[in-house]
Amino acid sequence: MINLIIDVSRYLMILLIALYTYLNFRYFSFQDDKRKNSICRRQNILMFLIHLLAYGIIWLETEDERMLVFYGAQVLFFFGYLLLYRLFYRNLSKLLVNNMCMLLSIGFIMLTRLSFDKAVKQFTIVVVAAAVTCIIPFIIDRVWQLSKIPWVYGIGGVILLGIVCVAGTTSYGAQLSIGVAGFSFQPSEFVKISYVFFIATMFYRSVSNRTILLVSGVSALHVLILVLSKDLGSALIFFITYVFMLFIATGKWRYLLGGTAGGILASTLAFQLFSHVKTRVAAWLNPWSDIAGKGYQISQSLFAIGTGGWFGMGLYRGMPRKIPVVEKDFIFSAISEEMGGIFALCVLLICLGCFLQFMMVAGNMQAVFYKLIAFGLGMIYAIQVFLTVGGVTKFIPSTGVTLPLVSYGGSSVLSTFIIFGIIQGLYILKRNEEEEDQYES
Amino acid sequence: MKANANPKANHQILILTYGIVLLFIGLVVYYGYFLQVKSDSVINNSYNARLDSFADRVVRGEIRSSNGQVLARTDVDGEGHETRVYPYDSMFAHAVGYSVNGKTGLEAQSNFYLLTSHVNIMEQVINELSSRKNQGDNVVTTLDVDLQKKAYEALGKRNGAVVVMEPDTGKILAMVSKPDYNPNTILSDWNSLVAEENTSGQLLNRATQGLYPPGSTFKIVTALEYIRENPENYKDYVFDCDGIYENGDYSIKCYHETAHGHQNFTQAFANSCNGAFSNLGLMMDLNGLRNTSQQLLFNTDLSLPFPSNRSSYIMAPGADTWQILQTAIGQGQTQITPLHNAMITAAIANGGTLMKPYLIDHVENAGGDIIKKFVPQAYGNIMTAEESAKMTELMQAVITEGTGSALRTDAYTVAGKTGSAEFDKNKETHAWFVGYAPAEHPKIAVSVIVEEGGSGGKTAAPIARSLFDLYFSR
User: Please, what is the Cα angle at A411 between A408 and A414, to 5 degrees?
Assistant: First the structure.
């Protein structure tokens, strides 16, 4: 009987998330606020239903009362977050907040299934991050000084990355994190943001050749340190983001083409120079030839995705924990295995929806500084999603980055909250301006 | 605020956004393709522990012959204990395999299908409510029980292997390897089967993995290369055989030192004259012979859905005379599997086009609805139609005037080649026969090897005869 309930819920969840995803894109086609608001309300209902069904299954499978308490705490959090955000900021983008909550809830579901302790830890971090980053839109609106301190961003970023490179702890062959007061802290997640701010503040001031040379130099330094730390995923994200931002700031195609050519050259060079790059590429080209060794992680991921198929095995019915670091870099495979390929694709499309919103904000901003920030952060987000999902599905070589808001990891969650908070701030800023214009005219 | 230095910024942001959206669409399409098309072959892997957990909810399906006889089934007793039953005992041992202590044969190859259930939704609900397992899908093979039985009995107590194939589809109709084991009792026999002092290798599927010297069946390759080098006048070749061909310090003997006398090319092939073919080898472009061998899939992974060993052809240009003399007649270092020999034969029968050998015809659910159908696939052309016609002519002569006399009959025409492969001076030769029938419109191809069976014409050819007789009597 339980099996039946679980099976039915599984299909129901797929249906609900498909609907949610549909609404996410339908939203863009409406102009008037009333219909947009009604879509967002329906999305909230869908999210809470999926969340309820999933925790229902989790409880049936584990018969652990702690799950119920944990579920209750999450519901309280989501209610509180959705409600308070609306109270503080009248002109917020509800869609963006909805998508954050949707992705967070999927992350909670999957993490609870993988490791209760980690899920609780993640939840705690999310609550703190949500509370702290709540004021970001407020700051964005008022603190214009943010555009005046490029060298704080630039030098701060380089120093932070440098510390990790020299003194960081090694995990899976890369120096990613440093220990601070018992917490493992992953600076590259935050340097991403300061990096975008650095580029935006510099290019907002001038796009003279001298500035371009200077910014290129500092950016290259970031990328170089990341490569030395063997954090190739981040290095790639940083590099592409710089080339794109340079292109948008100057409007010159030759920078985009030159940057792309340079990127290809650098990748080839990295392939020749670093054995771990070769290893990754080899594991990508043919994971089956060394299935017990270098190809283990990616082949386990493909087993998980393939065995799950379109409709998934059902929560607790798969073996996602066979995949090393499944709760971080490979969470997408776990979702696909147990919740189904359709569900996982919906997650991917929700992420794409977030990216489109980022780009719309970028397009709507008049000020170069804000435009570049929205654009840069959006690109960072999109590239990261693409690298992680593409990596675990063997579309591209695996680079070892997390799926923002879904993967386990405090630094990743906090930095994503900051990114979304900044975008939200810019969105609110713009809407407030528009409103003022309307009153004036 | 400062005005925008780049007036086209929004337009360019749009372009890059399209670019990213395109990347995501690519990813989605790839993902869908993987789930829909690729995943079956990916997940059916012994490293995928997930499949084992399927057995908690599904009763392993049946493996069946092409016309529906059960080759393997799972019986469930009142208390839910499951037993895998093989009604034909050891007859299909290597083809079907076993599914305890690891899996082999079709049990391994079709593991995913057997453990996946496609019974209809209502039945699933009823099973669920009465906490019964769902019945797994059944795998219907290409195997023909009658032919398998004939091959199994014809090989008798001798060691060796038989492969029967359809040349125009690649369907494997029979696959026997001896010595064998009884899959019904494999658990209790296990220790003796894998014991160190047990050197007979019952668990090895000789048909797909046994590597043997091809002996005179390799003259097919040598003859093909000679035809390629002399397409117009290859038939002008003549040789006088007195039973022992001497070249410098080396001598090559014909089987039992039979003196074949004056031989033309066709006669030399039909009578399997070692002297004539060793002599041909010396006249040949060794690079060409190597290329032809490799085109016929020597030194190549056959990349089939079941495990197979790759046949090896070692000789390279610059080889010494002795190696050339030996290699040209299929002795020396060259090795081939019975399946590979069947494939070469089937390709000749099929006008030069090699079809991929396969064992699973389709998968159906417990109710008999087809879930997945496997269709014949071409491996590629390994020789031209003209070359295959020339080879057929030569191979027919083997039957009508040469060593394949055991297959002379009015009922059908046969093209083939015998072989008696020496592997140990003090032991009898391995007896080979490869061939197909009818020669004009081939329907089946066989490859037979009897270890230490002596003469291919006397030991292996009669086995092929009995298979053809059975096939054409139906």
Answer: 95
Query: pTM (2 decimals)?
Result: 0.78
Helices (H), A251-295: 253-273, 275-285
The reported pLDDT for the residue numbered B128 is 75
Range of the domain at A201: 146-261
CB within 8 Å: B20 and A291? no
Location of structure tokens 């032919």: B147
Question: CB of B309 within 8 A of CB of B209?
Answer: yes
Q: Give the span between the Cα atoms of B404 and B286, in whole angstroms.
A: 29
Q: Kindly provide the b/e burial profile for residues B48-74, where b requires at least 16 CB atoms within 10 angstroms of the residue's own CB.
A: bebbeebbeebbbbbbbbbeeeebbbb
CA-to-CA separations, B182 to A291, B189, B201, B394, in angstroms, rounded: 32, 8, 13, 41
| Cβ neighbours of residue B349 closer than 8 Å, sequence gap 6 or more | B167, B388, B392, B415, B436, B442, B445
| Domain spanning B209-358+377-473: CATH superfamily | DD-peptidase/beta-lactamase superfamily (3.40.710.10)
CB of A200 within 8 Å of any CB in chain B?
no
* Contact criterion met (CB < 8 Å) for A251 and B7: yes
pLDDT digits (tens, 9 = 90+) for B370-396: 999 999 999 999 999 999 999 999 999
CB of A324 within 8 Å of a chain B CB? The answer is: no
Q: What is the spatial distance between Cα B286 and Cα B293, in angstroms, rounded to a whole number?
A: 11
A284 with A414, same domain: the answer is yes
Higher pLDDT, A36 or B415: B415
Residues A195 and A69 in one domain: no
Residue A15 and residue A155 in one domain: no
From the CB of residue A310, how many other CB atoms can be counted at a distance below 10 Å?
Answer: 16
Domain termination site, one of A261, A293, A327: A261
Whether residues A428 and A306 share a domain: the answer is yes
Does any domain span residue A269? no
Q: Name the closest residue on chain A to residue B24, using Cα atoms.
A: A386
Say how many domains are in chain A: 2
R_g of chain B computed on alpha carbons: 27
